[in-house]
Amino acid sequence: MRQHIQAKLPGLSPCVEFSEEDFMSRVARANQHLSSHIDLNKVVLSRYIGFDYDGDLLPLFNAYCLQQKYSDAILMDFGEVSAAIASPELLLESDAGIVTAKPLAGTRAAGKNATENSKIEKSLLFDRKELAEHVLGLAEMLDELKPCCEPDTLVIKNFLNFHYQNNLMHLSSELEGRLKSDTHCIDAMLALFPSVMVSGVSKTEAIRYIRKEEPFSRVLFAGTAGWASGRDCRFSVIIRSFCKYGKRLFVQAGAGVLEESVPVQENQEINLKMSEMLARLGCIR
Questions:
Q1: Model pTM score
Q2: Does residue 93 contact residue 100 with C-beta atoms inside 8 Å?
C-alpha cells in the first residue's frame, strides 16, 4: 500500500501508519480471543495512514466527499481538529417522530456494470461471514433502540438490501420506529452511539477489547456527526473520512472481525475502503 501511494502521489507520502502486517497480526489475535470468549462475537478493528499536511480540507471535500453517491457530505472545522466526511451510514434520523437507522456491514468492491453487480450481490448474500457480521450488529441495534420507541413500532425494513458508494457495495438494512413522546431524539442517537457496526457485539466488550488492542486513539473516526433541531435530527457515522489533527491528516478504515475471519481478507477490505480516498489526495499535492 505504501509503494502504491508514493507512486501516485509524489510529494505526499505517508509519515506514520499502522502497518498492514501489524493489523493482520491483531486480526489473528482477535480470532483466538473470539473463539474463547462467549461475550464477544464481533469486533471491528481499524488501520490508518497519516500524512504531514498543514492545509485546508475543502479541496478534499470537493474532490471526494461531494462526489460520493448516497452519502452524507460533512465538513467540520474546529481549528486544531477538522474533518471532511462522506458517510454512507446513517446512525439515526428523526423526522416528525419517526426514527430511522440504516446500518451497513458486509462489503465488496462494486462491479463495472449491472451484470457484474448482480453477481457480486449474490456472492455477498451467500457469504456466511458477511451475513453473520451484519445480522449480529442489526440484532444489537434493535435491542438498543427498542426502549426509545413506542411499543410494537420498531421494525426492520429493507432487510439485506444493497447500498452503493462509488467503488463499494455494502449489505444494508433499515430500522424504523416511532419515538416515545417522553424521549428526545438525542437520547435515541446516544442509545446507538457508538454504532455496533464500527465497534462490535457486544458493544461493551468490543469497546473494551479495542481500547486494549488498538495502540492508538480513534479520536473522530467511528464517531458521529450531524445536526439536531427540536425533536428532529440526522447523524451519520464518521467513516470514509479525512480527519486532520494539528498538522497531520489521517485516512482510516475498519473491518468487522469474527472468529472465522481471515486476516488477509480483512486487510484487503480496509485497502478497498481506503483506495478511493487515497487516490483523491492528489488534489492537495
A1: 0.92
A2: yes
